[in-house]
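Database export, one record per block. Field names are fixed; values are copied verbatim from the stored entry.
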Amino acid sequence: MALAALVLSFALSASVASATEHIMRTQAQATDFDAFDGYVAAFERPYKRGTSEYAQRRALYDKNTKEIALHNARSDRSWTAGVNHLTDRTAAEFAQLLGWKGGPRTATSAGDVSASLLETDVELASSVDWLSKNLTAFSHVANQGGCGSCWAVTSVALLESRYEIANKKFRSFSAQQLVDCVPNEKACGGTGGCDGATVELAMQYVLDNGLSTKHDRPYHGVDHQCKENPELFGGKKKDSEDSSLVQADPSEIEDSARVGGAAEIGLVSFATLPSNKAAPMMQALMEGPVAISVGANDWSFYSSGVFDKCGKGAIINHAVLAVGYGHDKSLSKNYYTIRNSWGGSWGEEGHIRLLRGKTVKEDESYCGTDSNPKEGIACKPYPESVEVCGQCGMLYDSVATKHQQAAGLAGGGDADAAGESTGAIVGSLIRRESRHAKHSEEEQEDGPDDRQEDTASVSDEIDEEEEERRKGRRGTSLEASTEADEEDEDEAEGED
């Protein structure tokens, strides 16, 4: 009897334990469903319970939230992961957001030819924060949607912010026009538009043609036929019967703003800065935001903090806007502040802070290999690999612009001064590159003796200009650095 009672007791205990486990599992599943249903409602997803898509999305959500929880459990983390509008997305859908498809860099790019112009003894500001300047351009974070238009959206963010800095007033620009109209004749990463292009291609298009406002050409996030209406955004028709937009003379790139639609928006020139160099980009950031390229494969869960997940050798596939750099005292880490194009609900109100080295040298030595450049650097012939430096490869490709007061604006001295000082670095880059390009064309028509004489003349002229620029540049840079340091001191006093 005692044995039977004992067996019955064990059986009852096992039954109760099994039932309890079943109840707990059911409650956990219900909680998961409730959490996912809350997510579906919060992000206005169309799928319903009982459908195959609902099941697929819930599985993705469950998988990703577990990864988020696992990361956040780490005691040594410098950034926090979180649920956002990408948590139920597939890898293919996330890849659509990575539309940077840049071309391989060559020794003839403006950045490479003029690298020495930026590697001078210039004192860098301790911190730069364009988000604190209350620019209208930064009042709203764009969301590119499912179109791979990060290159176009970033180009517009660069233009709008630099325009406002130079003109002391805001003007919008149309990302949709860039998506529809920027040519990609060398098939850099696809056919352009939502299939990807580059900030450099966008800037060249704007120099040649100008750019309409967001009101005139609102963003739809899909490819449309290009509406070639140059009068709409300040361009001019050719003398011939066709209405194609005017193409500026490449050898006179800095003057193109005065003869085409770019004059209407004050864009003088642009330059690709030296590859994998931190100092030139930081110098350019002292004058205004800078468009950069990054490997963003690991960004989807980012919520806050200083992101340090990218190892050496990122696959470059996304265009974003660098808007400053600084130091996080609570984390004891330096960072770059990056403005993304995935909406304001992602990250730190649409931004991410990427880890910056303790020194410029450390930043520039964090290098690896982009072993699959076809995915992000896809101009034929495809290179087998490229070196990329900085967190997420962010130092590999960066673009800055030079602006002046836009044509037709009633001007004050302050706006003129801003236009003259903004882009001093890239202006010198462009002048040098333009003269080399012009000289290369002329030398094809000259004899050997003429070529040697012309080369010496061009070199002397460039050296004289560079020497004059160096004399005046340190004073300007020190003023910028002093101003930034004073702002830091004022902020510190305010915090105290």
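Remark 1: Residues 448-495 form the longest helix (48 residues).
Remark 2: Residues 210 and 262 are 4 Å apart (CA to CA).
End of record.
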